[in-house]
Amino acid sequence: MFRRVSIPVVRKSISYSAVTQVRAYHPPADHKPPTMDELPIPEGSWQSQYDSNQRKYNLHLIGGVTILTLTLGFIAQSGVIDFNYSTPTLTNEEISQK
């Protein structure tokens, strides 16, 4: 009795996926292809817009490089990370142990 009830329920729960399948093999009936009239019309000087964008991008670049430099300098000064700039110097105790 339990099998007759549980097997169909399990089958249905496994067969349903979490994503609803949408089958749209053709465009909607009221679809119109795009035309050149729908494109935006450029306004103003491209050079002034380009210069404005470059100024903004250069400020971001300078800010990022500055923050990176300050971060690496702080880490190097605090001793959190040893960057292995040169060979380590041995103390007298380390020399006597070897």
Automatic annotation (TrEMBL):
Keywords: Membrane, Transmembrane, Transmembrane helix
Residue span, Deltamethrin resistance protein prag01 domain: 37-88
Top-rank lineage group of the source organism: Eukaryota
Parts of the chain that traverse the membrane: 57-76
InterPro entries reported for this sequence: Deltameth_res_prag01
Identification of the protein by name: Deltamethrin resistance protein prag01 domain-containing protein
Organism for this UniProt entry: Zootermopsis nevadensis
